[in-house]
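ok trying this again, last paste got cut off
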Amino acid sequence: MQHRHHFYGFLFVLIALSFLVLSGCSKPPTEEMAKAEKAVEEAKQKEAPVYVPDFFGKAEESLKKAKDYVTEKKYKEAKQVAVETETLAQQAISGIESAKAKMKAEAEQALQDVQKAIDEVKPIIEGAAKKKALAAKYEEFKALITKWEADLATVKEKLQGLKFKEVSDELKKMKDEVTAKKEEATNTLSAPAAKK
């Protein structure tokens, strides 16, 4: 009879330990999830979506996956993915400054390219001023140059305000517009005058 009590006692202890082990694994990874969410939010605040969108996108996807695991009560997987999310977000944060520096250099180069393109258009436009038939076109092109120069001044201010992505996008549009108008002006001036 005493062996039975020992057996039942041992069995009880074994079941209790198993329950403790299983219940320890079945808790949501609250701390890891909080760290992951904080890291992703920090990356977002530091403009990771603008400067390192690939890294930030991976961190966001990973966070969503971790949340899905929590919802499915797959806490072990959720914990692992939450830790990975925090690492991805930290990688995004660490890449922001170098991406900003690269984008700033590209924006400064684009600024010089646009200024050069505007300077190349000016003499072409002046050629239109010498032809009476092109007087209306001359005024149109002259107004465009004035607008572009005002836009460049605004872009320079934004560049000083560290808005590199915005500046890059604006300069690309400006360069395309200036190049198109340069071609138009060249074609207009080289076209034979209409005979009366």
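PB: full thing came through this time. Residues 75-129 form the longest helix (55 residues).
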